[in-house]
Amino acid sequence: MQRKRFLTLLIIVLYSIVWAKSTPLSQDDLANSDESNNGEKAAQSFEDFPHDDDDDDDDADHNSNDRDIDSDLDDEDHLRVQDHNWDVLIFTQQWPVTTCYHWRENNPNQECELPQKKEFWTIHGIWPTKLGQLGPDFCNRTVNFNITQLDGIEQQLQTFWPDLKGPSSQEWLWEHEWLKHGTCAMALTELDNELKYFDQGLAWREEYVMSRILDLSDIHPDSNNTVVAINNAIVKVLHKQPSIHCLFDGKHEISYLSEIRICFNKSLELIDCDGVKMGDARPIHYPSGSVITNCHIGSPVHYPSLLPPLLRKENNSKTWKFPLVNVYKLLQFLMWFTL
Q1: Within 64-113, where are the H helices?
Q2: Cβ–Cβ < 8 Å for 220, 303
Q3: What is the pTM of this model?
């Protein structure tokens, strides 16, 4: 009789172990993944960070895995521009450490080549955009990409406009940016071919070095700052409103500085980014001004200099601590009960 009771309880124990293994998320994990900020939309989490899911068939075969982060402009297809008219150019610089951290969190085996210099922002793209809407993109499908047109600036592009996944995918990135965005920008004489388009990006990168702009307000890598402080540092130098983008790690409740976007009119003059649809970024008003962002306005934004450790693996191991302690106690009870 005692042996049957022991076997029954042993089955219960084994079932509990299987159940614990199949339930990796704790209640705390679920709570952290839905953080809000007084009704404002939270920064995108690593889990929800958009992939390059353009609805163009030509991109499907590339399996870009977030190569083109500007796909967050594709989140609301019903707002997509149907014609090829546009109002502003969005010039985006990305902070490579945050981009690589996001990739590594999703896939620990993902390779990512960071620039050798520590304080080094890279170009993400120049995106023609209609105010209040998304796109347009792929404005001329008869245009091809010819890498030889970039021979004179290719080395500079490898430095300032790189694909962080490495040289093997570098040409793919430039081709994608040209076909998706450059073919719309070419409506301007100043940007009507590959060389002009990419050379303009290099010129803006040289003129608007984000690390130097932030440095003037003592905002450096390895620091935590409010998004308002970051915004004020940029406005102080440029006298124009940028759009500031973060990635939010819901597991650890940390916002990471990801991208800074500035805007230009069709005369290539720097303007405010007001009225530009930027994925989940929204104008947020506070007592002395406003900021266009998807970052948590009341929480620190981390500006990392090194890739943080893969904490998620540690978290997964922690989810086993409590169930295994309970199993151990239960086994002790069974041994005592069957004596």
Answers
A1: 96-106
A2: yes
A3: 0.71
Residue 267: both structure tokens together: 């005369």
Whether 214 and 230 have beta carbons less than 8 Å apart is answered as yes
Residues 6+ apart with CB under 8 A from 219: 225, 229, 230, 233, 303
Burial class (CB in 10 A: 0-12, 13-18, 19+), 307: middle
Which helix (H) or strand (E) segment holds residue 168: the answer is none
Specify whether the CB–CB gap between 113 and 162 falls below 8 A.
Answer: yes
**How far, in Å, CA of 169 to CA of 178, rounded?**
15
Distance of alpha carbon 301 from alpha carbon 105, whole angstroms: 18
Contact 219, 233 (CB under 8 A): yes
At 300, the amino acid letter reads P
Q: Distance between CA atoms of 265 and 227, rounded to whole angstroms?
A: 25
H-run or E-run covering 194: helix 194-207
CB-side neighbour CA atoms (13 Å) of 231: 26
- Give 221's strand partners: none
Token pair in block for residue 122: 């890279």
Q: Would you give the DSSP letter of residue 33?
A: T
* DSSP SS3 for 44: strand
Mean pLDDT, consecutive 10-residue segments, the chain of 339 residues?
55 47 34 34 45 36 42 47 86 93 75 75 96 92 96 95 86 96 98 98 97 96 95 98 92 90 98 89 90 92 78 38 40 45
- Residue 171 CA: distances (Å) to CA of 7, 14, 146, 154, 164: 63, 53, 10, 10, 12
